[in-house]
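Hey, I was hoping to borrow your eyes for a little while. I've been puzzling over a protein and I'd love to understand its fold better. The fold is given in discrete form, as structure tokens running alongside the sequence. I'd be grateful if you could look everything over and explain what you see. No rush at all, and the record is pasted right below.
>
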Amino acid sequence: MSPIRLGLLTALLALVLDQASKTAVLSWSAGWGEPLKVITPFMDFVAIWNTGISYGLFPQGETGRWVLVAVKIAAAIGFAVWLARTPRRLEAFGLGLLIGGALGNAVDRVVYGGVFDFISLHAGDFRWYVFNVADIAVVVGVVILLYDALFARASNSPPSEGSPKGNL
């Protein structure tokens, strides 16, 4: 499979998984009767609408909503341009996750006015921020791109003239 196809398929899969999980939890949460649903000893589901940027910071009004939609769409377009130019499958996979995640949260802002977050991880009384599948895709995509830039790509490069291996 070509890198661009891999990236586009990954983006589509991330977007579909994000929207399907949000739809399922939104539907399911209507019958909870409590603000949270215990899933495992370290994970709960909660129904939270994020109208801010990250972690619910800087709640936005109607203008901010559309600015954030535009930023997410611009990011997805920028990542798609990058994807179209990469010959590398790992990089394409990471970019696909970023595109799918950005579009998943953009869809929420267009349809609902805010992003639906529902996954809450915790260890004892310590709770991490609440997030969704699109957020997971973005974080994993960034980690993959960092790994690729720092380790995978460097290990596949020939040594430079000035390096000790180049002088052997």
Notes: The chain is about 60% helix and 15% strand. Strands lie at 36-40, 43-50, 115-123, 126-131. The CA atoms of residues 21 and 133 lie 7 Å apart. Helices lie at 3-29, 62-85, 89-112, 133-155.
